[in-house]
């Protein structure tokens, strides 16, 4: 067994390389470097030089921007098999965003100079790799376009809907567009009642355990089959519970879901203020 075989086996587990024959992986493997990151470690920073393409072997990485010193804008959460850093490498430009490990993470990197030398030496193999990168960019562009369209329509609908019951009904129907059978087995939307200090189900879809839709003092986030996102700030406006999420797809949509939850929380707060004014 040659010494590149273990790394070839690792590459084979990454979606990007799964269709490459071993003969082509054997050409790529010697150029790859493995890096380990602990939770919170910065992989690279926005505006810094771009000199490598990254492939997640295992773990989670947050891609984010910092439009101001005190604010972080989450863009995406990437997981096992995803790649990132391709735009800066292809354009020879500075990083357009930052990347941070969210847990113990293993990343395989490919330096830009090695990529360009490898393209000249093995053009046939390089064409396959460049095609994969372009497909990934195109897929992310489609996702971004869909998300922007969704958020525009959702924001307009929130502005036009002024009553609290209508907001919950709107949120339920719109969230079903984001959390479908490809994202999770089901989801439930809860409103928080500050007088009873409990969560009340406002709607659910897909496969949701019946006991989850009962009045609860809290929606536990540490249950293995649930992922929760709070809606609004203090006082709590509600909660979104996603049942049996398909982790990779769900993690990619998490920043979008958090943005939706913040927007809904703001709309609910505005609705409460309007109700108080009218009374």
Overall description:
42% of the residues lie in helices and 28% in strands. The strands form three sheets. The chain has a four-stranded antiparallel beta sheet. The chain has a four-stranded antiparallel beta sheet with strand order 2-7-4-5. Strands 10-9-12-11 form a four-stranded antiparallel beta sheet, covered by helices on one side. Strand 4 and strand 5 form a beta hairpin. The termini are far apart. The protein has seven helices and twelve strands. The longest helix has 38 residues, at 123-160. It has 279 residues and is of the alpha+beta class.
What summary fits the major beta sheet?
4 strands, antiparallel
Task: Calculate the mean pLDDT score and round it.
Answer: 87
The number of helical elements comes to 7
User: Could you tell me the number of beta strands?
Assistant: 12
- Principal-axes shape call: elongated
The strand order across the widest sheet is 1-8-3-6
Tell me the radius of gyration: 22 Å
Strand content: 25-35%
Helix coverage percent: 40-55%
Structural class: alpha+beta
Order of helices and strands: HHEEEEEEHEEHHHEEEEH
Low-confidence stretches: none
The first-to-last residue Cα distance is 79 Å
Task: Give a summary of the structure in a few sentences.
The protein has 7 helices and 12 strands. With 279 residues, it is α+β, with helices and mostly antiparallel strands. A hairpin with a 4-residue loop joins strand 9 and strand 10 (198-206).
Secondary structure layout plus pairing:
Blueprint lengths: L4 H8 L9 H7 L4 E5 L4 E3 L7 E7 L2 E8 L2 E8 L4 E2 L1 H6 L6 E4 L3 E7 H10 L1 H38 L3 H15 L5 E10 L4 E9 L19 E6 L6 E8 L1 H32 L1
Antiparallel strand pairs: 1-8, 2-7, 3-6, 3-8, 4-5, 4-7, 9-10, 9-12, 11-12
Helix pairs in contact: 4-5, 5-7, 6-7
